[in-house]
# Entry
Amino acid sequence: VKIILADSAGFCFGVKRATQLAFEAAAINPNICSLGPIIHSPQVVKALEEKGVKVVDKVEDIQTREVIIRSHGITAEELDHIHSRNLNIVDATCPFVKKAQDYATLLCSEGYSVVLVGEKDHPEVQGIISYTRGETVYVVADSTEAQRLPSKTKIGIVAQTTQSFENLVQVANVCLEKSKEVRVFNTICDATSVRQEEAREIACEVDLMLVVGGFNSANTTRLAQICKDIQNRTYHVETADQIDPRWFAGVETVGITAGASTPRWIIDEVVDCVKRMGDK
Ligand code: SF4
# Structure
C-alpha cells in the first residue's frame, strides 16, 4: 500500500515541551507527581509512571515534595494551594496557555471588561478566568453570544488557544459595536487548525484513514470526526495493536495522522504495522 503520513502528525510544541520537562524532572527526582495527566496520551502517562511520576487529581493528594504542572495549566486556586504547601514546581504549562492567562490578567488590571472567546466548561477557560482573581470575565462561544454582552467603556478580548481565527474576528467585530475601545490579544495557537487542515486534504486522497491518539484526547477525536466526514473508512486507534487487517481489503492508499498529544514512537509503530499489512 501507499502511505501518506501527515507532516503535522503528533506532538505540538507545548506537548513536546511538557513531556520533555517531565522526563527530565523524573530522571533527576523519581519521587515526583503530576497534577492531572501531563498530556492526553495514556501511553506517555504510563511511560512516565514507570519512571516514577505518579498522577494525582487534587493538590491535597500530593505526597511528594515536587509537582509537575500539566501542559494546559492549572487554576490560580490550585497554584495558591501548591505554594501554601511549599512544594517545588516543574511548570510544564504551555507558554501559549500561559500567555492567554497573563493577557486576561493584564486587561483586568488595566480596567478592561474582559471577553474570553471559548467553551465555558473547558479547563483551560476555567484556568484563564481563575487568574483574574474574581473579576467578571464574559465567556462567549461565538458572535451570537457576544451580541448579548452589555455595552462597556473598554473591552479587552482574549481567546482559548484552540479557537478559530474567524470566530475571534467575528466576536471582536461585535464588541466594536458595544464599546469605543476594544483591545484584542490573539492568543490562538494554530497547532489545532494546521493538523485539521492537513487531515482534511489527506482524507480526500486516500481509501482509508487512520487517526492515532488517546481516546481521551479531544483534539484527536475531533481529527477523526473531520476525516470520517470525508472518508467513511476512518479509524481512530490509540496503538498499532488495535489495527484490524480486515480494514485493508481493497485498499491502495492509506492516510495517517495523529493528534497533538500522540508521541512519535506510537506513530512509527502504526506506520510499520500498515506497511506489514500492505505486504501481505
Ligand atoms: S495545542 Fe497549542 S496551546 Fe495547546 S499545548 Fe499545543 S502548542 Fe500549546
About this structure: The radius of gyration is 21 Å. Residues 34 and 68 are 5 Å apart (CA to CA). The first strand starts at residue 2 and ends at 5. The mean pLDDT is 95.
